[in-house]
Amino acid sequence: MSASEDPPKGEDAEAGEREDGEREDVDEEPSDSEPNKRPSLTKVEHTERVSLPPKSGFRKSLAIAMGVLLLVIAATFIIRRLREEPTVATPTAAPSALDAIPDGAFLVATADLRALRQEPLTASFLSGDRDVAGLGPMRTACGFDPLNLVDELAIGIPDSPDDDFGVVALGRLTAEPIAECARKMITARGGTPVTADLGRFKSVRDAKNASSGEIAIGPSGPLLFGGGAYLRAMMAAAEAPAGPARGASAHTGLRKTLINHDTIQATIVLSPAQRKTIADELSKAKGEAPLGVGYIAGAGLGIRFAGNEARLLLVLRTDQPDQVAAVTELLAANLGSVAEGPAVRMIGAGEVLRRVQLETQGNDVRASVTVTGAEVADILEKANRLAMLVNAMEAGTPVEAQPQP
Fold this sequence. Notes:
Elements: H1 11-20, H2 41-51, H3 55-83, E1 105-112, H4 113-118, E2 131-132, E3 136-137, H5 138-142, E4 150-158, E5 166-171, H6 175-188, E6 193-198, E7 201-206, E8 214-217, E9 223-226, H7 228-239, H8 252-257, E10 264-269, H9 272-285, H10 292-295, E11 296-306, E12 309-318, H11 324-339, H12 342-346, H13 350-354, E13 357-361, E14 364-372, H14 373-395
């Protein structure tokens, strides 16, 4: 075989070229200076076929390996998440007027003014302009009626008779218009308004008359009214972080029993000192006073207005279930005697009291009744006439027709 001729390709080499399809021809014309010594193509191609797999097979193997790796990472992440303590997001409670009532209050009362404005039995009492004694219409004095902007009211009375009570209002309130209204009212009465910034609250009071109370309002509420230390306590309560102890916590249990009677609510919680005083008085009575009085730890009254009727619920709470019977007997006896009282008969409320249903539930005695709109209107009209009669008698003026029982 001459040097200018290509050596015949082996069968293995031809098969390798057909498999790869992309390998360049390795045959070259030998130069005159190179000796005619060439490696065996069969050996080289056989070595490449063993050490380097085809491209398509290599890519497939790489993809499988990456997929397995990703599955391992994902499984590890999921297992770790499952082992962690699940975290449940606690929804933020909506602001409530109760948030600004200091804990330890003797009486807490709330009114849903937004609901009362929508009920036919109560809407008329909250409509129109209100007058302020000595000032005339509130709208004339301030340019607007602040009560029309209030959606929720709360009243707190501390257990100490020497402390002032407090009022909390929530609604569409902003600080400067309310503060300006308060300054105008104080000035119109001959006082000297003093404005101060107390944290995020703006306060207004009359420097000439400390007994007239003081208001404080945040940038968008709440509006607080009280006096002295109790107003400061309300501001501190309003600024306290949300939690189970926030806002008149001692009344929370009683208010829950009134959940379906929530347009107007009032709860009373007796302090240990008050209960000791009652126990001492019962001891002095030497059995002449009913023991059930000493078993009462608290009371709640709820009213729900719905359409043309009002549903009322009274709850008396005891310390133990075995005290419920004595309290039930006490309540039944008092309902009967009150229903027969002359003033109650004159305003027509005796029939309503005779319809009251009593039941017990755990430590509670529950008294409920439903009053129609016609009954409410009749009772209110007669009560108004009775009040006019009493005022006329006290003033010594002629008396017109008296309300009939």
